[in-house]
Design the sequence.
């Protein structure tokens, strides 16, 4: 089996990346692919956020050991955690925080489990647009997509209306209702 993910950003509405990965790919390998694809530099605070269907954070996967976790939280590290430890069903969502200081993130959704196909490494299958810059002014909320999707519920409970600015993928490839990333520290 192979996973097909879509990765996107609010900052660059025309930025969409399709990633193909083996379920045994580590989050560290996935992280390195994102850095290379987007031209980002590695920093201490990169983290994956495993989200539910409402974009509420369920688990965090850290690049390095962190002293900022609660005593009742489990510590998952990218280097020894594989995608199939948390991802298995189509529609599962995660966010990748690439600039924690200004709370910038990319949203990722598993859009297809491809049965009968194997891959040994994660790779970018196709990409449209340019990624958002890694370092810019600070923002109040995590960046989540607000374009090319139906009404969204943002973390500050404001609604964003759909825009008509060019579809990047067909509507049946993207099911993006209910985006919200919350509970981020």
Sequence:
């Amino acid at each position: 089996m192979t996973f097909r993910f879509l990765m996107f950003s609010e900052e660059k509405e025309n930025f969409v990346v399709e990633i193909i990965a083996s379920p045994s790919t580590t989050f560290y390998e996935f992280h390195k692919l994102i850095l290379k694809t987007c031209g980002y530099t590695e920093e201490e605070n990169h983290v994956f956020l495993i989200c539910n269907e409402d974009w509420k954070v369920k688990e965090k996967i850290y690049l390095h050991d962190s002293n900022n976790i609660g005593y009742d939280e489990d510590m998952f590290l990218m280097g020894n955690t594989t995608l199939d430890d948390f991802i298995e069903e189509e529609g599962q969502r995660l966010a990748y925080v690439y600039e924690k200081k200004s709370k910038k993130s990319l949203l990722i959704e598993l859009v297809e489990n491809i049965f009968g196909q194997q891959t040994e490494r994660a790779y970018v299958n196709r990409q449209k647009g340019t990624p958002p810059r890694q370092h810019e002014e600070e923002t109040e909320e995590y960046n989540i997509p607000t374009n090319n999707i139906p009404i969204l519920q943002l973390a500050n409970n404001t609604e964003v209306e759909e825009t008509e600015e060019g579809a990047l993928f067909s509507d049946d490839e993207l099911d993006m209702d209910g985006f919200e990333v919350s509970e981020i520290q």
